[in-house]
Amino acid sequence: MSLIFGPHPKVEPKTADDGGVVIQHVRAFVFDDNDQEKKSGGGADCHKQAKGHWIVDSDIANPMSVYEQYRASRTSWGIDAMGSIIVEVQLSNGMVGVGISIGGDAACYIVEKHLSRFVKGQDPSNVELIWDQCWRATMNYGRKGIAVQALSALDLAIWDALGHLRGLPVYKLLGGKTKERMPVYATTARPDYAKEMGFHGAKFPLPYGPANGQEGMRKNIELVKKWRDAVGPDYPLMIDCYMSLTVPYTIELARRCEPYNVKWIEEMLPPDEYQGYAQLKKIITSTMLTTGEHEYTRWGFRQLLENKCCDVLQPDITWCGGMTEARRIVALASAYDIPVIPHGSSVYSYHLQICFPSCPMAEFLVMSPRADKIVSYFGKLFKDEPLPENGYVALSDDKPGFGVTLNREELSLKRPYPTD
Ligand SMILES: [Mg+2]
Q1: Has residue 348 been placed in a domain?
Q2: 88-105: per-residue pLDDT in tens?
Q3: CA-CA distance, 288 to 156, in Å (whole number)?
Q4: Same domain, 154 and 274
Q5: Model pTM?
Q6: What separation in Å is there between the alpha carbon of 61 and the centre of ligand 1?
Q7: 363 alpha carbon to ligand 1 midpoint, in Å?
Q8: pLDDT tens-digit profile of 217-265?
Q9: Is residue 343 annotated as part of the catalytic site, yes or no?
């Protein structure tokens, strides 16, 4: 027996002619060319960096490290192949909201040719309705990856526009502050500099994986020891493994890290290895285990929670389904007493996190090529991205939306699939 109701009447937004404000235009952009995107500091794709940058051209274990020819640089296998996407929604009163993700031309195609039909003419308040229609309509080819990244950028653009329309920061639309400022930890090649810059901890990439054998394992441990010695005994130190390890390798790594007080080991296994994560969580008690950077939607995060895969979830707000989905993920995780410390995401993460008590700390990637100074996470994409100072990020009380302005003057953007 099931509950069967008749269809709900269609939601009919007031039209612009009736004095209602509706979404009139949806536009999806990429950078005009690859070099410009790299010179602009990567935009929404933190891996779109010039040669020599620590995040692409240093030893960082990754899923392709098993192939020797792709080991030296992550750009050699195309970690930056997709590039940024910038989505604008324009309201009938002229206000514009901006959301971003990765996915390049392919994501632009999804936004303009498919998703825009659920957005144009809609009341920007109806974020749940728009999200649900986009989700259901892409189910036959989406569910994870690029389709959800496209939806994320669109959803964030709508939240930004809604903030402008209401004259409020997004965090005030979501529920207001639970803390005055966000403590921030650094992801960096230089934990010593991160400590000097005032960050509340430092996470560095693991250089070697199983394909580097016992010598690689020994070098990994030497690096952990080096950074522990450099930052002193109590400074929080974390290790990012970027989906590169196996269950037995992680067990040995955790065991050999025991003397060095590692706060957490991150994303050790490929994202679909839910059973492997669950197995590690049962075995490893000397450090916390975290993951979720490459997981999508509440259904994906439910898998991690139900299987007890980790101690902390790390969704990327610009990838996991946008703000509409991220707040559901936080709510779901809170029922399991699992904190959420999002991956990167800058302002999109800060506006979410400041609202929820179960989001204790933000990540900031130190994106200067030598990890020696704080620069904007999104490069030149925005004119006014708030940056951490002395280990904290504060948000403006009165800047509407996400509080950032697209840097139209310095960027050359193109719209590969214009639909209006
Ligand atoms: Mg990571």
Answers
A1: yes
A2: 999 999 999 999 999 999
A3: 31
A4: no
A5: 0.97
A6: 11
A7: 10
A8: 999 999 999 999 999 999 999 999 999 999 999 999 999 999 999 999 9
A9: yes
